[in-house]
Amino acid sequence: MAQPRASTDEENAPLLDNPDSSPSQSPLKAIFSPSRPLTLLEKALGALAVVLLLLASVFVGLFAGAEGSLNKEKGKHGKVEWKTEYITSTKTATTTNYGTTTTSPSPTGIPDKNLCLTPECVILSSSILQSLNQSVDPCEDFYEFATGGWAASHSIPADRGLYGAFNEVNDNNKKILIKVLDSIPSERPKKDASAEEQNLAKLKAVYNSCINIEHLNDVGRKPLVELADHIIHIFGEFDIDSISPSEVFDQSYEWTGTYDESYSLPIELVAAAERSEKLQEAKKKGAAHWEIPTPKEPSVQEFYQYRPNEEREKRITNTLAWLHSRGVQGLVNFEIEGDAGGEDSQVQSLWLYQAFGGLPSKEYYEEKPILDLYQSVISGILTDLAEHTSVRQKDEKRDLLSDLEIAMESGQAEAQGLIEELLDVAEDESWPWPWPGDDRKGDGNGTGDKDGGKTTKEPVDERMDKLASQVVHFERELMRAGADPEYLFNPHYAYNPYSTKTVSKMLPFLDIPTYLSSFAPRSFPANITVTHPPYLKSVTNLIDKTPDHVLSGYFVTRLALTYAGALGPKVTIRQEKKRLEDVLKGIKKGTEENRQDVCLNWVDEIIGFIAGREFVREAFSPEAKADGEHIIRAIVKAFTEKLPHISWMDAESAKAAQKKAGAIIPKIGYPLSPNTTDPTSLQNWYGRLTIDERDFFGNVLSSTLLEETRTWAGLGRRRNRDSWEMYPQTVNAYYSPPDGEIVFPAGILQPPFYSQSWPAHLRFGAFGAVAAHELTHAFDNSGSQYDEKGRLRDWWTKQTVKDFEERAQCVAKQYSKYYVHDADGKKVYVNGNLTNGEDIADSGLAQAFLAWKNTVSDSKSKDSEKLPGLNFSDEQLFFLAYARVWAQLTRPATAVSRIRTDPHSPPNWRAVGTLKNLDAFHKAFGCKVGSGMNPPKKDQCELW
């Protein structure tokens, strides 16, 4: 095993004078305690000697500290070093003999002139050293060898289920943005301010409007009540005088009383929610294995006799258009996506999806305790809104104390104004509200109706609890009618284009032409892609038999759950939503939110590209962008040249694959639409967005309206190829199958993934692996179903597809042997079929290694510089750089949940599994056949 030499410095005496030492042991005594007065020249020379000694001590300290860290485990047994010997025979691959030998100290000698001693290299070297666990044989468990030191020095934060290198980078990126925000002046920009100044002012105003929770709490529910009033005005009231249970819409007896605070979510439910989320992501990024179904012709569904109601259809249409334009999903959802099944995947077409609810997936609607909790949350929200919407305030008579309570919640100024108004009219006979004890309009308790008799109206909380049970039942029926995510997000099953006229017949309760016209698209769509046609029949049937007040309650609930996060933490509606979120996320009751993180996320949502520009200016450079593009081009070139030599791919398929590889568009750092480097471009992009530092809710709403408008404006047009789906500060990367592009934001081009100052083998080993991963997605079992133009097409020969599947199954079987431990220490195995696409993409590391080797032509160049304290070869450092990015700690419950739902294998197996199949790694570390990291060839898999 190759590793740094033990220290060979022969100097063991202290570098500074020891007062207890004899004169012969104190070489500096002659300078500081001379036997005679020193001349000026002697003093100067003495001072120079001290400076040189101090400098020498710094360098010796660096090396000694590094060596001490490296030999922490072995130091207990004396100075020893691992020596790796490579013995090549004609029969087998390179093998390694391991053994420890004690070496005698020898002079260090003249430092290697290729040794990199820049601050960046010293920091990098220190980081690598601290990540290692050198008590482990790298040929047995390379992940532990490369990351064991990191794991020993880190822990999982209390509010998280895992913590790893990705989280570290994300946290560091947030610190950069906070530093930027703190540096922006608080004063409003002048009228003649530059585009840059105005952009920065908007950035700070968004953050300040979110972080000022005292003001948000003072504002209260008012902005949401105004929106709820609008729904009531368009569609009708949800708070009617009396709500009677019905056999169809009140089935709360199934779940009432089943929830208590000791309840915790079953792992199966968490897994179902994550599966839905991952598959939705996979559709966009080509990261899941989609089975190709038998071709079928779409047919119009035959409905029962729908009862037309033109007035009601108009109200539903207007309500849905109003909600959808504000990002609130309900009943049916329309999306603008590329036409993957058409001739041009870049043309943005209209897709129709089923509704999604307030719970993470349809499985949650069958869990009785969750339904009980969900009903109580909706009841609390509806009760709060019912007591404050203008409709009920006009119709109902309230007492003085209720009005004062409402006013106090809205702020001191409003309360004071109400008090002054009441003093003016208190003696007036036309006083509109009965005083407590005033029986002029009923009985002596002020509870009578206008005729003096007893009212039969139920208390508002009882009415809203009944309504909440009906809303939950209605929403559950919607979820039951929808397709499972494996079908809904499968591009083959979900691609069902119909004419717009046909879809209108399939959804008789919705006036689609009127609905579409409200979004003012540039062109009227001739076709609509229906992702799950049977859903249209079910939703039509359900709406036909649903009372208006239940539909109104459903609409208002969807609105409240969507915008609750924009309210102050102490506002009742926000607290109800958080009560639900905490249970769904497994967060301990009473845990305070990290407001800074919350507001940075909102900054991304509202004004993310301006924040991205500032991040790029602080943490990225044009040179880094050019270097990243160079790395990707080198990987694509290496892959393209390798394709004709892949044994299982015939010449026709290899040629098509080369064509597709050449068509891949790499995007590095930041988008050009809007142009992140141009403040004027960003000013224009957000020009219609008015930001008010005292109106956070309004900022969220305005931003949503702007984005929806921008999205609908693209309907029927070709997508702008300069646009991105991520902001520059995002720690992620993706391959988009219909767009044929691989994207790497500046946020992920940070240590330990990338630094321009690193030697090439480290840049290729870390970032190059990420780039090769995304490129390989274009040729895995999902991406391979899209041709070079991003269209769903069969472009491989049948024999190549067969041979590919055989090798893909080899990978699936291999990874199915890997596992994590649950809380009881039992093994839970990876589903190799679920992770197959990502596992195959990880094998792209081979292309990154080949690309790096192709770029190394001069061993004396910067690319061959050595790092201080590290006696690893360039090849070994390449693989260390790769393994380091997968460093992660995970709680058992989180590990089990992710292994059942995440299309990515656990991070340790992503490193180990990839390297087990890579001969270049075996040679680099001299791992003999049969060792943990070099299994017999029959147990290895190779695709690309």
Task: Provide a descriptive summary of the structure in words.
The chain is α+β, with helices and mostly antiparallel strands and 944 residues long. It folds into four domains: 1-110, no CATH class; 220-370 and 461-593, Neutral endopeptidase , domain2 (Neutral endopeptidase, domain 2, Orthogonal Bundle), CATH 1.10.1380; 394-458, no CATH class; 622-671 and 730-939, Collagenase (Catalytic Domain) (3-Layer(aba) Sandwich). Helices cover 49% and strands 6% of the residues. The strands form six sheets. A four-stranded mixed beta sheet has the order 6-7-9-8. Strands 10-12-11 form a three-stranded mixed beta sheet, with helices on one face. Strands 1-4 form a two-stranded antiparallel sheet. A hairpin with a 4-residue loop joins strand 11 and strand 12. The model is unreliable at 1-33, 62-109, 298-303, 425-455 and 858-862 (pLDDT under 50).
